[in-house]
From TrEMBL:
This is D-psicose/D-tagatose/L-ribulose 3-epimerase. Residues 24-252 form the Xylose isomerase-like TIM barrel domain. It comes from Maribacter stanieri. Gene3D superfamilies: Divalent-metal-dependent TIM barrel enzymes. The lineage of its organism: Bacteria, Pseudomonadati, Bacteroidota, Flavobacteriia, Flavobacteriales. It comes from the Bacteria.
């Protein structure tokens, strides 16, 4: 059954009691769930946030990234080992949140590049650790959904073809893939074909406009995208991921230098837009 979620990164990358009222209002709008960034070091924060979500009837998904010091494709075994431990920690925090999905580009470090195209050895290094991480996630029934990013934020996986190639190497039932309309709009020649490519592994979808603003107000080919999702029988999350400068440190870290839309504008209009598209395409 399709579910609609909203990523609170539009307000904050941190976790605090300030998110309670935001979660309450998202529930009132009609959202099925909320997505949080796994990065805050305080374990108790995850438990408090997870409890509030459960109390008000919101399901939870999560997103995370790896730093250069935790890169799964680094030539140093010590760096790759740190990445493995960091992902285990992130899975534990997902358990505290009560999350059912952990998504993100954690096949490699965020915005960390090499002076060459992706190497076979790098795919192998990533796949080996991700398979082990999948075993760890399987203990709590958490699904890990890897994300392909645009060329300016990642080089290992930019397209669904590359992501599928990596997932075939990982070969684990708890390690799947996701589709993000923003990144696909930059890298794919056809969003519909890209969705069909990743379909065997597709477990999560980020709804994100070309400018990261309110879904439906930009030039993402939404009809093509939702039509393809219906064609492949996708019935998972449709989670809005839009960015603002509300959290200055986070905004600076991802090169968000201007306001694309206000968070509640994204949340209210975006929910109606996705709901209409789901109904139109019988998802």
């Amino acid at each position: 059954m399709s579910k609609i979620g909203f990523d609170v990164l539009a307000w904050s990358a941190g976790l605090s009691d300030d998110l309670f009222s935001i979660m309450d209002r998202l529930k009132e709008i009609g959202y099925d769930g909320v997505e949080f960034f796994v990065g805050s070091p305080e374990v108790s924060d995850y438990r408090k946030i997870g409890k509030h979500a459960k109390d008000i009837g919101l399901d939870v998904t999560a997103v995370t990234v790896l730093s250069p010091e935790e890169n799964l494709i680094d030539s140093s075994p010590n760096v790759r080992a740190k990445g493995f431990e960091r992902l285990k920690w992130s899975i534990d925090r997902c358990h505290d949140l009560g999350a059912e999905v952990l998504c993100g580009p954690f096949h490699s470090a965020f915005a960390t590049f090499a002076q060459h195209a992706p190497q076979e050895q790098e795919y192998d290094w990533s796949a080996e650790i991700l398979h082990r991480v999948g075993d760890y996630a399987q203990q709590t029934n958490l699904i890990l959904t890897l994300e392909a990013l645009n060329r300016f934020e990642c080089y290992l996986c930019n397209t669904m073809s590359q992501l599928k190639y990596l997932l075939e190497k990982v070969n684990h039932p708890n390690v799947k893939g996701m589709f993000d309309t923003h990144h696909a709009n930059i890298e794919e020649k056809s969003l519909g074909n890209a969705i069909e490519t990743i379909a065997p592994y597709l477990e999560h979808v980020h709804i994100s406009e070309n400018d990261r603003g309110t879904p439906g107000e930009g030039h993402i080919p939404w009809e093509e995208s939702f039509s393809a999702l219906a064609k492949v029988g996708y019935d998972g999350w449709y989670t809005i991921e839009g960015f603002t400068r509300n959290d200055i440190d986070f905004a600076n870290s991802i090169n968000v230098w201007r306001e694309f839309a206000q968070p509640w504008d994204m949340a209210e209009k975006g929910f109606k837009f996705i709901e209409e598209m789901i109904q139109k395409h019988s998802l």
